[in-house]
UniProtKB/TrEMBL annotation:
Residues 2-55 form the Beta galactosidase small chain/ domain. This is Beta galactosidase small chain/ domain-containing protein. One of its GO terms (cellular component) is beta-galactosidase complex. The keyword NAD does not apply. Monomer. GO terms for molecular function: beta-galactosidase activity; carbohydrate binding. Keywords: Calcium. Its cofactor is Ca(2+). Signal peptide: none annotated.
Amino acid sequence: MTQTFETIEYYTYGLIENYNGRNHSTDLVIYCQSVDELFYSYIRPQETETKTYIR
């Protein structure tokens, strides 16, 4: 990917990471974040920024 991709916009449940069990705790709306905001430095490598029902 080129470095011109700086933001992401998506229609989903919640701005934070979520799984099927958390889909009804937030509203289904359009969110916009920078690519840097999507990364979280976990202590051990694992899934990061898992989002469900993204449209």
